Structure formats: C-alpha cells, structure tokens
Amino acid sequence: MVTIKQKYVKLTEVMASKFIAILFPLNENDDFKVILKDIQKEYKKAKHYCYAYRVGMKSKSSDDGEPSGTAGRPLLDLLYKKEMNNCALVVVRYFGGTKLGASRLLRTYVAAGVNVINESELVQID
C-alpha cells in the first residue's frame, strides 16, 4: 500500500474542457468535506467537482452531476488499482462547450487521475 505526503495538481485539456486533477493526503474522513469546500472556493466557476478517497478501510466517491459511473467510481477504482490509501483525488471540470459522451468522459476523468498520480511521489505505508 502507498500514499503521498503532499498535494499535487495536474491539468488535462480535452475539446476545450479543462480537467484539473488534485491529489492530496487525507488521514481522516471528516477532513475531506473541509478540503473539498476549499477546492470549490478556489475553482469557484467550475461545473463539476468529482472525487474519490480512501482512508483506512473506508472509501467514497462522487460523480457530482456527471453521468452516473463516469467519474467518481472510476477514480476510486484507480486508487484501488494503484494500491493508494490515505489520500483523496478530486477532478475539477470546467466545461468547454462540447459534450464528450459518457465513454470519452470516463476515459478523460481516468486519464486526469493517472496524470496526477504519475506526477506524484508515492511512499510506502508501514
């Protein structure tokens, strides 16, 4: 199992939509709501704030208005696949005016998550 020690941010653009992936350490479930509100304030004109997190044995995800199963659950699956824990992944979307369709949307959210994870320094959890 791995985690991260600091926050990472990575931008992915597809057909004029901007997907900003934010990966950050998370040690308590209750801390997530406060951090998400801070992200919503920082990126206040964004259309969606999709997320997934794992803390210990608990996990949660949200599509935040995107078509069901296109964002939150795939991001959570990514955290499980990469064996990441005690962290959260939020992808903020600024809609660029072109609908991507469910399959392309899903691939783009996953790609945004992969891009930020690839930029991060993973550390082993004892």
Could you characterize the architecture of this molecule?
- There is one protein chain.
- This protein is of the alpha+beta class and 126 residues long.
- It has one domain: Ribosomal Protein S5, domain 2, CATH 3.30.230.
- It is 33% helix and 33% strand.
- It is built from three helices and seven strands, in the order βββαββαβαβ.
- It has helices spanning 29-42, 72-81, 102-119; strands at residues 2-3, 8-14, 17-25, 48-55, 58-62, 87-94, 123-124.
- The strands form two sheets. Strands 2-3-6-4-5 form a five-stranded antiparallel sheet, sandwiched between helices. Strands 1-7 form a two-stranded antiparallel sheet.
- It starts with a strand and ends with a strand.
- The model has no long low-confidence stretch (mean pLDDT 96).
What would a concise description of this structure say?
The protein has 126 residues and is α+β, with helices and mostly antiparallel strands. It is built from three helices and seven strands; from the N terminus they run βββαββαβαβ.
Give the overall silhouette.
Answer: globular
How far apart are the termini? 8 Å
In CATH terms, what is the fold-level topology? Ribosomal Protein S5, domain 2
Percent range for helical residues? 25-40%
Protein topology:
Elements: E1 2-3, E2 8-14, E3 17-25, H1 29-42, E4 48-55, E5 58-62, H2 72-81, E6 87-94, H3 102-119, E7 123-124
Antiparallel strand pairs: 1-7, 2-3, 3-6, 4-5, 4-6
